[in-house]
Amino acid sequence: MSEPAKAAPEPVSFTVHSLPTPGIDGDAVRRTASGRLKMLLVLAVCAAPVVASYVTYFVIRPQGRTNYADLITPVREIPASLPLKTLAGEDVKAQSLHGQWLFVVVADAACDALCEKQLYLQRQLRETLGRDKDRMDKVWLIPDAGTPRKEVMDAISAVDKPTVLRVPREELSKWLAPADGHRLEEHVYLVDPMGQWMMRAPANAEPTKLKRDLERLLRASSSWDQPGR
Asked: Which domain of life is it from (predicted)?
C-alpha cells in the first residue's frame, strides 16, 4: 500500500500588533518638560528685580522728566573676548568687571588736558554719591601702549584707586562708541553690574545734570544691586 502524499508545508506568518518606540519614555519626557519649566520660572524670578528697575527708569517716567545722558538701546554687553590687560601686561577677563556699576573713561596714557578733566569728573561724581559710591567703580581704559605719568596715577589714586586697563582701540570700538562727530575720549560711559554699556554722557558733560542721572539709576536698582563684586 502506498503512503498518502504529504501536504506541502505552509509558510510561517507573523502578525505584529504593536512595537515599543525605542528611546522614548513618557515619564522621562514629562520629567524633562517639568524641569525646564521650573528652571525658566527660577530665571524669571531672578531677573524680575532687574527688569523692574529698568522699566521704572526707562519706561515709567513722570511727565516732563528727561534724561541728560544718552541711553544706549539696545544695551551692549562687554564682549567676553575683549583683550584687557593690566599696565603690567597681565590678562584680565572681561567677566571680572561684572557685578558693579562702572564709570568708564577712555584716554591715551599720555593723558592730555581732556583726559585729566574726565578723570577728575569721574572721581568727583563718584564721591558725591555718598553711601552709594561703593556701588560704582572707576575704570580708565587706555587704548595705546604708553605708560601713564606717575603724577597722574598718584592724583587719581589719592581717594580710591581706579581700575586701569589697556585695550586695543580697534577692539574697544566694537563695544563702546562715541556720539556722531565726536571721539571716544570726549565721553564718559556707564556700564551696569551685568556688564552692559547702557549710558553715555555728552561731551563736556555738566556734572550736576549727570549726577542726577546716576542717582536715579542707583535708586532704581537699589533692590537688587549691592556694593562689591
From this structure: Bacteria
Q: Cα–Cα distance between 192 and 65 in angstroms, integer?
A: 22
CATH architecture of 68-220: 3-Layer(aba) Sandwich (3.40)
Q: Quick one: which H or E segment has residue 121?
A: helix 113-127
Q: How far apart are CA 194 and CA 191, in angstroms?
A: 8
* Beta-carbon count within 10 A of 153 CB: 17
Per-residue pLDDT tens for 14-25? Answer: 455 555 555 555
Q: Is 181 left (phi over 0), alpha (psi -120 to 50) or beta?
A: left
Q: Which pTM value belongs to this model?
A: 0.73
Element (H, E) at 225: none
Place of cell 563718584: 126
| pLDDT one-digit tens code per residue, 136-175 | 999 999 999 999 999 999 999 988 889 999 999 999 999 9
Nearest to 172 by CA among 85, 110, 65, 71: 85
Instruction: Work out the angle at residue 46's Cα, subtended by the Cα atoms of residues 43 and 51, and round it to the nearest 5 degrees.
Output: 100
